[in-house]
Amino acid sequence: MSEKSLRFFLFLAILINFYLTLSLTPLFNLDEGAFSEATREMLLNHDFITTYLNGNLRFDKPILIYWLQALSVTIFGINEFAFRLPSAVAATIWALVIYLFTRRLYGEKTALFASFFMVTALQIGLIAKAAIADSLLNMFITLSMFSLFIYIKSDIKKYLYFTFAFIGFGFLTKGPIAVLVPLATYFIYSIIKKDFKKFFKDTFNIKGILIFSLIALPWYLLEFKAQGMKFIEGFFLKHNLSRFETSFEKHKGSILYYIPVILIGLLPWTSLFIKYLTKLKEWLKQKDDFILFGSIWFFFVFIFFSLSGTKLPHYIIYGYTPLFIFMALSFKEIKSEFLLSLPMVLFIIILIALPFVARDYIKFAKDEVKVIIITLLPLFNKFYFGVMLTLLFLSLFKFSKEIKAIILGFSMIIILNYVGWIYANVRAIPVKEAANYIKAHNIKKVVMYKLNTPSFNVYAKMLVEKRKPKTDDIVLTKVTELKNFNYKLLYKKGLIALIKIKPNHKQKLPFNYKKDKRE
């Protein structure tokens, strides 16, 4: 396949996966809803230093993503496209940087495939158009790491200063992790290369530290001035240190948690990742310094977050960038077209079997899971099976290796967005429709009970109360909670119900019910 054709397919993949599908689904909760609502309240309050969620202080993340979302919303209005656009732009730059860096080291075709693998990987497709900070953070981590490696190899100071600048922007996006990844990677690399003196000198470069400080510190100082120790305790101690030391918000897992995450998250390119692992020892003997540097980068992230008390699937993505380059190198060596396709084939077979398994499982499922299955089953229709069987046939049919890679990449784009839309029917679409009901009926006050869906605030353009419902309250809750109320039903779909509490109701509220403080 010609390089011109590959460039076209890469452009098309970015256009479809990052942009044309931005508004395919409403905002998902919790993260997309929380980021978007905090941005809406920022614009409402005209406070561009401190973020709030449902009127309460929010110290989860630094400010940069909120500023970018606020700019986008100011231009395009309050909608999914605007909230998600900064992530899509960041992911596009991320892909472009992978291309430019890989072309510099390994040539045009390898660079095009490295970027194509990144754009079409399952987990990247999820975060690239999500209204959260991770796409932006990964862009800055990638820029800082590539600049650092170029500096190490060339000793041209401007690349060291670029590294400090990108770390500064990363620190303004998600905090200490933007410093930790390049710092730890360079430290380990310098130990292996027996050049610790250079590491120490570069790390404490006065001009570099000044560049970092000018970019990153002003907002932190202004936020500390505005909120004092509440900011230190909320951001640094709770949302950074506590996430590593303990399981935060019940996001826990074993030390092996990230192995299945990687194998699934890199679909449809899992075979290429495994090929990299089998070739790593041989490649390291060739004294390719980026193989060493990039492998340290990936394995540090993998080990660090495997040991962390809080585990979330997207944390491992901080180490994915070098893998896309290594997978492009593996692609040149992989001989079996079938092995290349096998992970996708297995994935599609699972998706075909899923409705049948769900239908059989429904009689054993708990109430909430049962509602989810009942909502989704009608969407697993003839069209769904037609799409999956077509993609399965294409994955099994014999093509040249390069054409098969293009087919697998676009198949993943179709699956990701189609299945995402199906899932939205139980999680995201009902919340948006309930909010639209509130606006259409000019309802001014809503109580949210046993539910944490900040996207409702975004669409309804209002704050909600989280407390025990009272007579005449309009209540947004889960359908599984309806048995606790005497109510008039206003709206119901999927897991979401909007009700009005009738007078003289008999509530069966749990005695020990407490306000859900998760944000």
Write the layout of secondary structure elements.
Elements: H1 3-20, H2 31-45, E1 52-53, E2 56-57, H3 64-76, H4 80-106, H5 108-120, H6 122-127, H7 134-154, H8 157-174, H9 177-192, H10 196-203, H11 206-227, H12 229-245, H13 258-265, H14 270-285, H15 289-307, H16 321-333, H17 337-361, H18 367-376, H19 382-396, H20 401-427, H21 429-440, E3 447-448, H22 454-460, E4 474-478, E5 487-493, E6 496-501
Parallel strand pairs: 3-4
Antiparallel strand pairs: 1-2, 4-6, 5-6
Low-confidence stretches are: 510-519
Give the strand tally: 6
Please state the average pLDDT score. Answer: 92
Oligomer: single chain
Shape: globular
**Helix-strand pattern:** HHEEHHHHHHHHHHHHHHHHHHHEHEEE
Radius of gyration: 24 Å
What proportion of the residues form beta strands (DSSP E)?
under 5%
Q: Major sheet: order of its strands?
A: 3-4-6-5
End-to-end distance? 48 Å
What's the story with the biggest beta sheet? 4 strands, mixed
Q: Return the structural class.
A: mainly alpha
Number of helices: 22
Structure write-up:
There is one protein chain. This protein is mostly helical and 519 residues long. Among the domains are: 132-333, no CATH class; 337-427, no CATH class; 432-501, no CATH class. The protein is built from 22 helices and six strands. It has helices spanning 3-20, 31-45, 64-76, 80-106, 108-120, 122-127, 134-154, 157-174, 177-192, 196-203, 206-227, 229-245, 258-265, 270-285, 289-307, 321-333, 337-361, 367-376, 382-396, 401-427, 429-440, 454-460, and strands at 52-53, 56-57, 447-448, 474-478, 487-493, 496-501. Strand 5 (487-493) and strand 6 (496-501) form a beta hairpin. Helix 5 packs across helix 16 and helix 17 (337-361) runs antiparallel to helix 19 (382-396). The longest helix has 27 residues, at 80-106. The radius of gyration is 24 Å and the shape is globular. The two termini are 48 Å apart. Residues 510-519 have low confidence and may be disordered.
